């Protein structure tokens, strides 16, 4: 019997087919699992497992919405890479949560929207393992939202008795607050380590009874750290909160939470940066749309680069002459040495010189710009006054210095988003200087 005629309807059936394909085709077992799933009408083995475990009799077809979760990493030994996990949801992710609401959950707050089907962690992780852990954690939260249709709340006390966080359930840990956008009701997701609350079970039951709350422990292990012992308890006001039984039932239909030890995502070099299918399709659709004349945003006048511990950045194309760098550096240092106690000026100008220092390092190699010259371009100022106030004449002199620096930057760089962003910091520093009295 050919593999094309075999269409398993259970996870175990897929595994048996995968073992057969592994032998016949000489595939790695993980590749054979994906091949078996695809032969049965699924996108990959993870998708098949999710669908079959939650609804064993469901029609075999790739259902749902795909989302890619990515984290980039750089370790102490200079190793770099990308970890991307593909998950399937019943709804598009931005129907479950808005980009702004990502900030309402500690795990999702570090991710940004990179495309209609792609979320990327903003900062570099310190290792491949850390990148995988962060992506798996985000996936668990996504599955929670997809199953419950709840959204994370920015409130920190609303679901507690009396609206006071001091009334929280005894032993609570690693908690998050969720609300139903239709009923405007809330629940509290408590995720302590199971062993830490075993001895407090009676105390927690008494608390629930006294306050009229319900506590339900789900079979699904939860979002925080299910691989090392945390467990999920749903807590809600019996009268005004979200009913817990339907939520627990929805979660208990989920497959086991995704954890690092069961990683089956993609591990790849950091560059080229991953572009998701949805991002490509969106770009193609926008390309086909009739375009009205518009002002160029200058994006083509910039180049991408990766900054350690920050991640992907952009800088202007071309090179500003070294002497121009030195001139701008002198102007910025003259401002910095007099404005240490005016943080609205100092912090912005310090950030500007740090960014220009990065640009100079990328524009010139060591032979063209030796270290002793490079380090003096934007740093090594002397004569700091640490003044808490400046005469108006000195403030105006520094305003003119920043205006001159702006002229030099515009003269030697093409118009582009990274330059405009830098100049906005200059404008903000000027405003702070003029408001200083």
TrEMBL record:
**InterPro entries annotated for this entry?**
DUF5623
The domain of life for this entry's organism is: Bacteria
All copies of the DUF5623 domain together span: 313-431
Which protein are we looking at?
DUF5623 domain-containing protein
Species whose genome carries this gene: Natronospirillum operosum
């Amino acid at each position: 019997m050919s593999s094309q005629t075999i269409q398993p309807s259970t996870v175990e059936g897929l595994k048996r087919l995968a073992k057969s394909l592994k032998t016949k085709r000489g595939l790695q077992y993980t590749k054979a699992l994906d091949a078996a799933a695809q032969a049965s009408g699924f996108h990959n083995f993870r998708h098949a497992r999710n669908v079959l475990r939650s609804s064993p009799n469901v029609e075999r077809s790739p259902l749902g919405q795909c989302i890619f979760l990515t984290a980039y990493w750089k370790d102490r030994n200079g190793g770099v890479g990308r970890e991307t996990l593909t998950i399937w949801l019943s709804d598009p992710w931005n129907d479950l949560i808005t980009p702004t609401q990502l900030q309402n959950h500690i795990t999702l707050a570090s991710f940004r929207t990179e495309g209609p089907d792609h979320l990327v962690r903003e900062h570099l992780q310190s290792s491949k393992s850390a990148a995988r852990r962060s992506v798996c954690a985000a996936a668990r939260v996504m599955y929670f939202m997809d199953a419950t249709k709840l959204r994370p709340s920015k409130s920190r006390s609303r679901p507690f008795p009396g609206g006071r966080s001091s009334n929280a359930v005894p032993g609570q840990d690693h908690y998050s607050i969720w609300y139903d956008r239709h009923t405007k009701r809330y629940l509290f997701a408590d995720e302590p380590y199971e062993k830490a609350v075993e001895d407090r079970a009676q105390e927690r039951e008494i608390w629930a009874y006294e306050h009229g709350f319900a506590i339900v422990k789900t079979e699904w292990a939860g979002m925080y750290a299910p691989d090392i012992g945390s467990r999920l308890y749903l807590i809600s006001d019996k009268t005004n909160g979200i009913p817990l039984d339907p939520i627990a039932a929805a979660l208990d239909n989920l497959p086991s939470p995704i954890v690092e030890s069961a990683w089956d995502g993609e591990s790849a070099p950091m560059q080229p940066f991953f572009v998701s299918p949805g991002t490509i399709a969106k770009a193609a659709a926008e390309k086909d749309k009739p375009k009205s004349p518009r002002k160029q945003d200058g994006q083509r006048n910039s180049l991408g680069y990766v900054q350690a511990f920050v991640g992907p950045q952009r800088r202007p194309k071309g090179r500003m002459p070294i002497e121009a760098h030195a001139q701008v550096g002198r102007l910025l240092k003259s401002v910095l040495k007099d404005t240490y106690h005016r943080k609205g000026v100092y912090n912005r100008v310090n950030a500007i010189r740090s960014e220009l220092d990065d640009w100079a390092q990328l524009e010139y190699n060591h032979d063209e710009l030796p270290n002793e010259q490079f380090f003096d371009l934007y740093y090594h100022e002397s004569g700091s006054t640490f003044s808490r106030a400046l005469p108006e004449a000195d403030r105006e002199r520094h305003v003119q210095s920043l205006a001159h620096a702006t002229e030099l930057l515009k003269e030697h760089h093409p118009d582009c988003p990274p330059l405009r962003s830098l100049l906005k910091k200059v404008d903000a520093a000027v405003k702070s200087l003029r408001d200083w009295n």
